[in-house]
Amino acid sequence: MSKETPKNTNQDILQTARSVLIEEAEALNIVSQSLNNQFIAACQLILDCKGKVVVMGMGKSGHIARKISATLASTGTPSFYIHPSEALHGDLGMIEEHDILLALSFSGQNDETISLTPYLQQHDVTWISMTGNPDSAIAKSSNCHLHIPVEHEACPLGLAPTTSTTAMLALGDALAICLLHARGFTKHDFAKTHPSGRLGKQLLLRATDIAHYGKNLPVINEKATIADAIVEMSAKRLGLTLIESKNNNIIGIFTDGDLRRSIEAKRDLHTTKIIDVMHNNPIKIPAECPLSEALAIMNSKRITSLIVSKNDNTWGILHMHDILATGAF
């Protein structure tokens, strides 16, 4: 390393950081202005593809290629990453007849990727290149070329891939989002590939997935007293109990709020019949109700529990605490 004393004051650090961000932002604007029919052709090739998009790249371009592949796969375009060197040693077998190859190389002269050209041509594999040199070997060999018009890197040495990889990443995002729009991909489709994520849980989880049912349900008969309700509520710990008629139909609900009001009204807990203090028309939701809708109902009605019904029959209880415990809200 050079013995020259580097500039490392706070102002120097901020100035350098800002200059990098400004330079990369300006480069992205240039890339956006350079988009042409080749980008449209690339989108159409992928939309018509009956297989997967195989994304390839070496070094820093390889890291970007992995991210682009992941973005494509999560937004409706099946995709996976393949390393050029590994491809030369057997992984080419992963590329099938109806797949499309997307090869990233800023120089366009990556030896490993160029070495694959005879195989790709022999097997009639359609491929799209993304390079900074439209006259490069990779660009000329591909069926479609996406140009990255970056003249220099943000690195002051002009060596570390910075602006070029940012431009590749952004162009890959643009490609993925254009495909998303063209396919009519929705947030519900996105949730299907992200079942453990926050959005996935919000959109996929239903009341039936987390509701309390069966032996866990607090239920007392219509002849019970408030004291009987307290015993059942304490045993099941849901802050409520359902009231059942002699015909085994749920006719009401009694909550801990109702209990407090009964105590404030100085009702005799041992003699007051539960049917005199219960709610006759508790709010019900279908078992397939999304948790987001159930939570909205609870918030609007200022309640913490809902009755879950299946085939018009009471089936379970959904509590707000159980919704919040999913981590989706």
CATH class of the largest domain: Alpha Beta
Strand-residue proportion: 15-25%
The SS-based structural class is alpha/beta
Return the CATH topology of the largest domain.
Rossmann fold
Return the average pLDDT rounded to an integer. Answer: 89
> What is the chains' assembly state?
single chain
Question: How helical, in percent, are the residues?
Answer: 40-55%
Which consecutive residue ranges, at least 5 long each, have pLDDT under 50?
Answer: none
Number of domains: 2
Shape: elongated
Q: Report the major sheet.
A: 5 strands, parallel
CATH superfamily of the largest domain: Glucose-6-phosphate isomerase like protein, domain 1
Write down the secondary-structure element order: HHEHEHEHHEHEHHHHEEHEEHEHEEH
Number of beta strands: 12
Question: Helix count?
Answer: 15
Provide the gyration radius in Å: 31 Å
- In the CATH hierarchy, the architecture of the largest domain is 3-Layer(aba) Sandwich
Strand order of the largest sheet: 2-1-3-4-5
